[in-house]
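Help needed: design a sequence for this.
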């Protein structure tokens, strides 16, 4: 089941398996490649209602950490990377190399981290937008670099203005 909400960054589809959020991604929806089944639209399911509530609070700068049941579909390695993404605090960023080192790998694994990051099915909630290139530049985001910049600016206290 799924719902769609309007955000300052455009329409966001949130998908659930009935017990947890399995995907969240921006329009255009037909370009999204998710492993989770879509099912029927249900704007009243409790998991989706709570996800939308928390996402609205996030965009209103009233929420810095999501508390939702999550069930992203991915490989064991992708799951490990996504766990590291959830550990990046609101308002901060990490590089692909830093995440690789957190996983006990060398910076050379940054490409593998980048690939796993790019497969993150639960955008914003699993904050893949907080990952930047080694040179501090914005690189890669399934929702587009403009959205990534907008999300980082939303979370920023102004100390990251050099990224934009």
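Sure. Designed sequence:
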């Amino acid at each position: 089941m799924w719902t769609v909400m309007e955000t300052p960054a455009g329409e966001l589809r949130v998908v659930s398996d009935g017990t947890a959020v399995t995907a969240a991604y921006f329009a255009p929806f037909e370009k999204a490649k998710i492993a989770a089944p879509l099912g029927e639209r249900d704007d009243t399911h409790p998991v989706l209602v709570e996800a939308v509530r928390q996402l609205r609070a996030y965009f209103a700068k009233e929420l810095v950490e999501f508390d939702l049941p999550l069930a992203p579909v991915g490989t064991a390695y992708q799951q490990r990377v996504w766990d590291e993404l959830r550990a990046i605090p609101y308002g901060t960023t990490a590089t692909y190399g830093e995440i690789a080192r957190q996983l006990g790998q060398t910076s050379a694994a940054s490409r593998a981290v980048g690939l796993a990051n790019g497969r993150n099915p639960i955008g914003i909630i699993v904050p893949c937008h907080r990952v930047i290139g080694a040179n501090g530049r914005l690189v890669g985001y399934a929702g587009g670099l403009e959205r990534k910049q907008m999300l980082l600016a939303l979370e920023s206290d102004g100390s990251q203005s050099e990224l934009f």
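The longest strand covers residues 10-16.
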